[in-house]
Amino acid sequence: MSFVRIERPRPHIAVLLMDRPDRYNALSYAMLRDLHTALDELMGDLKSRVAILTGSGKGFCAGADLKAGASGENGLWEKDLGNIQEKFRMQQAYGELILKFRRIPQPVIAAVNGPAAGGGFSVALACDVRICTPNTKFNCAYTRLGIGGAEMGSSYFLPKLVGPALAAELMYTGRFVEADEALRTGIVSRVVEKEKLMDAALEVAGEMVKHASPFGLRITKEAINLVQGGLSLEEAVHLENRNQVLALQTQDFMQATAAWLQKKTPEFKDR
Fold it and tell me: In Å, how far are 134, 201, 227 from 102, measured between CA atoms?
């Protein structure tokens, strides 16, 4: 049984559905492995130009499944390792998940359908765009569990979104951020009613597919990743120059230019 399904409701759009609704899509070991498998599949799937990540049921993702660990459902991450070594490999798998969200070529839209706590918040932060519902709330739950408040990329992404002072407050306290504050501080770009959430995510994804060439989407995500990683202005301009020269040689660029002159919508072929 897989706890993550990939659905393709429209051409060039892949939906990753986290499917453990009885546990608010918490990250058991099985869920973590299934997310890795799904992202590995998307890595080589250039026909899917945009991805949407969402959860089934009432929650987006409740973070690490502590009950599963206590009940033995998770078992060992890897057998025949010492306790520290096994925990270290498990922690690497959590961190690598965040890296994969940034490495896959598709921009990822998080359709946050309910609470996103701890690792669930970190997963949402690793996405490119976040849309949520009025009942959504976010928190860095880590310090409340006796561990460090910086986990799964939160210390990297959160200060860039909300500024260092607010990010520090959220990571130190683990307090919840309601939907209105998330919108005001830039954690999400839209708040829509729950029944309209997937329509809104599909609308944003559809705009990307319609108006951006597949190559253009991929090199834009690459540039965002590298610039956020700390490139200087000069390095960023060099990167942008390289990307634009490459894109200018594609058939999609020529076709889009001709369509723009004729006031038509281009049909991108990834050529």
Answer: 27, 19, 13
Going by C-beta distance under 8 Å and a sequence separation of 6 or more, which residues neighbour residue 120? 25, 26, 27, 59, 60, 61, 62, 63
**CA–centroid distance for 204 within its chain:** 14
Q: Quick check: helix, strand or coil at residue 47?
A: coil
Query: Would you identify the CATH topology of the domain 4-208?
Result: 2-enoyl-CoA Hydratase; Chain A, domain 1 (3.90.226)
Tokens of 110: 């998080």
pLDDT, one tens digit per residue, over 126-149 is 999 999 999 999 999 998 888 898
Ramachandran assignment for 245, one of left (phi > 0), alpha (psi -120 to 50 degrees), beta (any other): alpha
Q: Can you tell me the distance from the alpha carbon of 271 to that of 251, in angstroms, rounded to the nearest whole number?
A: 5
Q: What is the pLDDT of residues 86-102, one digit of tens each?
A: 778 888 889 999 999 99
Residues 213 and 105: their CA atoms lie apart, in Å, by 13
Query: Distance (Å, rounded) from C-alpha 46 to C-alpha 42?
Result: 8
Distance CA 7, CA 36 (A): 16
Q: What's the predicted TM-score (pTM) here?
A: 0.92
DSSP states of 160-228 as a string? Answer: HHH-HHHHHHHHHH---EEHHHHHHHTS-SEE--GGGHHHHHHHHHHHHHHHS-HHHHHHHHHHHHHHH
